[in-house]
Amino acid sequence: MTHYHGGGWSDGKIGKGVILAIIDSLDWFLYEKFGRSIIEDVFSGSVEEFKVFSSADKTSPSIATILTGLDPEEHHVFSTQNAKESGIINLPEFAEKNGVKSTVVMERAGALTFLKILEMVTPVEDRENIVEFDEDILSGVEESVEGFKFIVCHLRTLDEQLHRGESVEKIEEGLERIIHSIINIAREGEFLLIITGDHKCHGNGKPGGDDVPGTWYGGLGSSRRNRPEKSRKEVRNWKSK
Ligand SMILES: [Zn+2]
């Protein structure tokens, strides 16, 4: 667990809400290569960093695990259609049922599956221009900060650019734009920000594993600042605390 101290945007208070940003294909390898330094460039507040084992190598089952805490063989969500039909309650739905106004901002079909319980979601139309797609996701998050306490979003630029074989520079630039934007939105709204990946990045034959980062930013409170620091926590599938 890595801590960065000083200048957290909540002055020791828990944030007004939580943004959970799932960055598609942001695995531990890419996080260490690009993600951490991008964050360090723009953020000097409290950070906790976890290494998390992803539950699958595809998007739908991984996101379902992040949002339910269940393994794929338990939640059986391998597609958007499965998500639509699933009777298992997920994190934003659980929060909503317990009086925490919650919403999701993601690709249209995926977003609509949450309407079983959530009152409002922001569906974003898929398109060829993935940078523009993520800009719409980020605008949707920004617009949700006023009315919601828990916002889940799914950003896809990194995954698409990796699949398209874009250059390292372009991939880093794309990731930088997303991370800067989401940090700014969280900071403006005084929200706690959680960034995670869903699974290892596909292709490239790089040495990687099934680990993805789970990082918490801002609003972590002053009490944590006096705790002895540990280097890193490893948890499986978000089940362990
Ligand atoms: Zn994915």
Automatic annotation (TrEMBL):
It comes from candidate division MSBL1 archaeon SCGC-AAA259D14. It comes from the Archaea. Residues 204-241 are annotated as: Disordered. This is Metalloenzyme domain-containing protein. Residues 226-241 have a biased composition (Basic and acidic residues).
